[in-house]
Request: fold
Amino acid sequence: MGLSERIERNVDLTYFEGEIPVEYVYTYGLGLERFFRALKDRGAFTASRCPECGFVYLPCRIFCERCFARMEDTFELPGTGRVYSFTVVHRGMDGSPKEEPAVVALIDLDGADTRLAHYLVNVDPGSVEIGMPVKPVLRPQGERRGHLEDIVGFAPA
Ligand SMILES: [Zn+2]
Reply:
């Protein structure tokens, strides 16, 4: 099958297994740069409030995604929140069974209008409930890299 061949039926599709080495650099942009620098340096959770519509973003942004207003100022929130939704993960990214199930939750952050998806830690998967209060667990300061993994997860508060 050549690249210019027109496929009429999706059952005729084929695929090739292989690997494509890809190197890239991901840049946070100005808003996320502020958030991850504060997380790394001070263990702080930096938010921003839209001056037009009042929506509070955590992580902070420099433009409101709802009304496109510019947001200059940031402030800190505790990073605590409540479980909005969760799932228990039994398989790894490669499909193999995990030794211990992991809990991934969508967390309503206190003081913010946004949610953050992250692991729940130090918790029995069977005891997780919607609305359960949680607090962030961070890597020790010297081990933080300015990355989402600086947050180990969220534990019951
Ligand atoms: Zn706005």
User: Anything to note?
Assistant: The pocket of zinc ion is lined by residues 50, 52-53, 55, 64, 66-67, 69 (CB under 6 Å). The domain at 29-156 is CATH 2.40.50.140 (OB fold (Dihydrolipoamide Acetyltransferase, E2P)).
